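Collaborator request, handled under Task 6.
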Amino acid sequence: MFERIKDLICGFVEVEPDEVTAESKLTADLGLCSLDLAMLSSEIEKEFGVNITAKTFATVKTVGGIVEYIENEKK
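Structure tokens returned to the collaborator:
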């Protein structure tokens, strides 16, 4: 799942896949803006059936946090 989230993120911002780690901060390290986060949320919902709201992104700040959130929601 981490690899797929990483691929999605690389589709929205110009970062190399090897720059994206579980600890990477979505906005500070990877440069995702609010529009990128909204599009990422939409893609996650389509692919994993999990809704991530803007409010959720306020607390889930890393790539690993997204993976953990999805895993918890799918239980």
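The cover message to the collaborator said: "The two ends are 14 Å apart (CA to CA). The chain has four helices and no strands. Please let us know whether this matches your experimental observations."
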